Amino acid sequence: MTRVFSGIQPTGHLTLGNYLGAMRRWAEVDQHRADSLFCVVDLHALTVDHDPARVRRLSRQTATLLLAAGLDPEVCTVFLQSHVDEHTRLSYLLECVATDGEMRRMIQYKEKAAKERERGGSVRLSLLTYPVLMAADILAYGTDEVPVGEDQAQHVELTRDLAVRFNQRYGHTFTVPRTTLPPVAARVMNLQDPTRKMGKSDDSGVGVVYLLDEPDVVRKKVLRAVTDSGREVVYDRAERPGLANLLDILAACTGGNPESLADVHDSYGSLKKDTAEAVVEVLRPLQARHRELCADPSYVEGVLRDGAEKARALARPTVDTAYRAIGLLPPV
Ligand code: AQP
Question: The domain spanning residue 96 has which CATH number?
């Protein structure tokens, strides 16, 4: 059976981008067709300046939202990265095959490092090596497919390179995974700046729809989305990015096609109104389920405990094989 692995960082409140670009597909498609693991990658949240209490809170909230979005622990494995030591064990071995040049070429590293420097902070070494830990997350499970949004595709490419290099040098150890992108909304953009992706660690939050935003807040954010000064509704990602973003979001929420949706809207106002309502409707069941799960925190804890146990048992044989292959003696 195909093995699927994907992760999500508890670096902020989850966004519509996380949902449309990744989580929805995990819940609706991946968990039913493949042997799937979904991980709250909490160690990755330590690569930038953070408040420990906030990371703990967001880790719990992220796991709860994954379940609220429809991940079913009866058919997939949901767990926290830091509960499975195999990820960090394997990450060190992969650091021994990765190069610093490769790390410095990562777009997300460049962007996040620049942001840290702008804030007057220093760049943590773990921010540079983060893609190697991500590669370990994926390779530890013999993963075939990694369903992610477009922004993570470069990291999965690096994972493939490391797997191939390790296998060539030390003998076949890892399955070489491939990225799968969603057909629409692979990159949901910020509503106030459609040249930037909608990210959960965005500072102001005005252009970001959070999964737990109240319906009226969602409406306000969508109605205030930046478009352009034209009048005609056309789908053109290069020339009309704000409009295209709204059409992509509407298409992803309704199952339509962005070009046809452009044809049936005769004003920006009606497009924004329909998009706002479509987003509110998509979030409604998720928010209701989230409220139920919050009333039963021991259920979520149990899911994470069982998930970590299952994940450990799956990862250990591959990581042990990698230890031996690279030249380490097994413990006596
Ligand atoms: N705007 C987006 N459009 C489509 N997909 C997205 N994803 C994130 N933002 C968008 C996808 O969500 C999954 C989990 O993301 P992540 O938390 O691991 O990493 P990220 O891409 O760094 O997330 P954020 O939300 O943008 O956080 P910050 O602001 O901290 O960088 C991934 O599959 C990702 O592609």
Answer: 3.40.50.620
Same domain, 191 and 88: no
> Which residues have C-beta atoms less than 6 Å from ligand 1?
6-9, 11-12, 15, 17-18, 21-22, 148-149, 151-152, 186-188, 197-201
260/247 same-domain check: yes
Same domain, 64 and 171: yes
> Which residue among 152, 179, 209 has the greatest number of ligand 1 atoms within 8 angstroms of its CB, and so is best to mutate?
152
Residue 20 lies in a domain: yes
* Unique residue bearing structure tokens 């410095």: 104
What is the ipTM, given to two decimal places?
A: 0.95
Q: Are residues 164 and 213 in the same domain?
A: no
Decide if 332 is inside a domain.
Answer: no
Q: Are residues 94 and 155 in the same domain?
A: yes
Distance (angstroms) between ligand 1 centre and the Cα of 331 equals 39
Residue nearest to atom 2 of ligand 1 (CA): 17
Domain that holds residue 308: 3-181+297-326
Q: What is the pLDDT of residues 133-189, one digit of tens each?
A: 999 999 999 999 999 888 899 999 999 999 999 999 999 999 999 999 877 767 899
Q: How far is the CA of 267 from the centre of ligand 1 (A)?
A: 30
Q: Which residue numbers are catalytic? A: 112, 197, 200
